C-alpha cells in the first residue's frame, strides 16, 4: 500500500491486483475487453483502498466531464434549495454530478459564477437568471456550453428553459382574494427585470379587470427577492396605504409580510389575508399554513435535465421552452372579507 495520506493511483491498484495499468483503467471506466471476474476484483480493491478517479483526465479522454453547474439566485430561499435538490437527483439518475453556485440575485456575481462553472469544465449549466438580459448566458453561448434556464426566462427564446405558468398563478392568487370579497389587494411584486414577476403582475391585473375592480397604483409595491423584502412592506405600512389582503410574489415574501404585519399588531388572516406563490409547504412543514400557488418544483428539475440531455445529444436542436401548470392551494391565511 502507498504511504498514509498519499493519493491512491492506478499504478497502486495495478500492483495490488497483479493486473496491468491498462486493464485496471478499463475496469474503472467500465470499458469492454476484460472479464467480469477481473473487473469485479479490480473494483473491489479500488473501493477498499479508497481510490478516487481523476475526473479531469477522464473528461479529456471522453470529451465530457459528466458534471453540470446549477446557478441559483439565493440558496437561502427554500424554493431554490428545492430546485437544487430536484436537479441534483435528476442529474444523478443520469450519471451526472453537480456543483452549486449562488448569484445572490446579482448579475455581476451571476456572470462570475458562469465563468467559475466553465473553469470546472462542466458539460452544461442550469441557470435561474437574475435579470432580462443575463450576461452569463451570453458567455455560455459564446463558449458553446448548453444552458437550461429554470424558473425564469429571457426576452429572447434562444435558450432551453422550464418555467411555471406565472401569469396563471398571478391570476389565481388575485382571483381567489377577489372571490373572498377583497377589493383592496396589495400586490408585493418582484423586480420588473425578472420574468416571473412581470408575468405574475400581468395575471394580478387581469384578475382585477375581469372582476371589474379598478387598478390602484398605490397597491403595487415592488419588493426585493432576497431578505430585504421586509423593508418594502414596512414602507407600505408607514405610508398608511389601506388594504385588506396581500398577494405576495413568493412564499418567501409572504412569510416576511406576515411577520411585519404581526409586528404592527395586524393579525393574519383576521385583519389581513395573505396569499403566496411556490407552495414551499408541500416540501417543508411550517407553522403558518399559507394559502399559496402550487407548482411542480420537483418536476421542474426532471424536465430541465431532459432538456439538457436532449441538447447534449443534439447541439443543433431548436430551443425548447416548457411551461408547467400551477394550482391554487387553499390553507388558512386567506378568509372572506366583511
What does this protein look like?
The protein is of the alpha/beta class and 338 residues long. The protein is 43% helix and 15% strand. A six-stranded parallel β-sheet has the order 2-1-3-4-5-11, sandwiched between helices. Strand 6, helix 9 and strand 7 form a beta-alpha-beta unit. Helix 5 crosses helix 12 and helix 8 packs parallel to helix 9.
Provide the fold topology.
Blueprint: H1 10-17, H2 21-28, H3 36-49, H4 55-62, E1 67-72, H5 78-93, E2 97-102, H6 107-119, E3 124-127, H7 135-142, E4 147-150, E5 160-164, H8 166-179, E6 185-189, H9 195-210, E7 220-222, H10 229-238, E8 245-248, H11 251-263, E9 273-275, E10 292-295, H12 297-313, E11 321-324, E12 326-329
Parallel strand pairs: 1-2, 1-3, 3-4, 4-5, 5-11, 6-7, 6-8, 8-9
Antiparallel strand pairs: 10-12
Helix pairs in contact: 1-2, 1-3, 2-3, 5-12, 6-7, 8-9, 10-11
Give the uncertain stretches in residue-range form.
none
Termini separation (Å)? 79 Å
| Beta fraction | 15-25%
**Mean of residue pLDDT?**
90
Short account of what is shown:
The chain has 338 residues and is α/β, with parallel strands linked by helices.
Question: Which features does this protein show?
Answer:
12 helices; 6-stranded parallel beta sheet; 338 residues; alpha/beta; 4-stranded parallel beta sheet; elongated
